[in-house]
Amino acid sequence: MRLTEAGTDPDRDPTAVVHAALDVGVTLLDTAEMYRNEELVGRTIAGRREEVILCSKFGVRWGDSGRFDDWSVHADAATVVSSCEGSLRRLGVEVIDLYYLHHRSEHTPIEETVSAMAGLIEAGKIRSIGLSNVTVEDVRRAHAVHPVLAVQEAWSLSTPIPGSMSETLAELGIALVAHSPTGHGALRAEDSTSLGVALGHIARHRGVSPGQVALAWVHCQGRRRDEVVVPLPGTTSVRHLHDNVAAIGIELDDSELDRLTEAAAPTSVA
């Protein structure tokens, strides 16, 4: 959840969003050092910490320019420890359930990073290790140092995940946490592309929104492949939350799944 302060809109009150999620059984709460909202997230879960699977990430730091493309990766052992201490302090908790390396480093061997993360487990500061924005080779090397629980990567109809990554995660028993399952919101509305037309047709037939169909496609991929796939849609309002939760119950049939997959292929034309 990219939670921000609500302003005057009660539907976007961050505490209301998180509590509404917990009330309907959504327990996975994802944040990051980079998001600059860990203190806010900590306030939203105060009093309900035991109901939450709390995830955070480290390793990406913003530059001083304020530009969106001004960031760098820091994944050395000392940074692993200091970043975790900072996140624990900002979140106001004693342990983080799932702690991710936010982005692979070109300079620090992943073995050094994961060894330091394993040390955090031994110290009782985190419970599990995750990786994000990594390669298949990174996953194998990291998993050889310490078991990796989850890998978080973008996956949606508009952002396919490489088959080699999916196969590797299944082989090693690692969960795929699929962020941006509606293509950063681009799949929430019907358009004139082949994929947009397919989403709109299925949505009208089922009486739901195109965005819910796109999210249901990701949910169904896990069941279809017999793999652990956890969609992670960005949710910033109570209304949006309920729409996302409702998508869990949409069981797309094989013909619908195939139509969407074919429409999403780069060669598809309307």
From TrEMBL:
| Gene Ontology MF annotations | oxidoreductase activity
The source's superkingdom equals Bacteria
What InterPro entries does this protein map onto?
AKR, Aldo-Keto_reductase, NAD(P)_OxRdtase_dom_sf, NADP_OxRdtase_dom
Q: Which stretches are transmembrane? A: none
Q: Which GO terms describe its cellular component?
A: cytoplasm
- Check the record and name the SUPFAM superfamilies matching this protein: NAD(P)-linked oxidoreductase
Q: Where is the NADP-dependent oxidoreductase domain?
A: 11-263
Keyword list (alphabetical) reads: Oxidoreductase
The record's section on PANTHER family has: AFLATOXIN B1 ALDEHYDE REDUCTASE, ALDO-KETO REDUCTASE YAKC [NADP(+)]
Q: What is this protein called?
A: NADP-dependent oxidoreductase domain-containing protein
Organism name: Williamsia marianensis
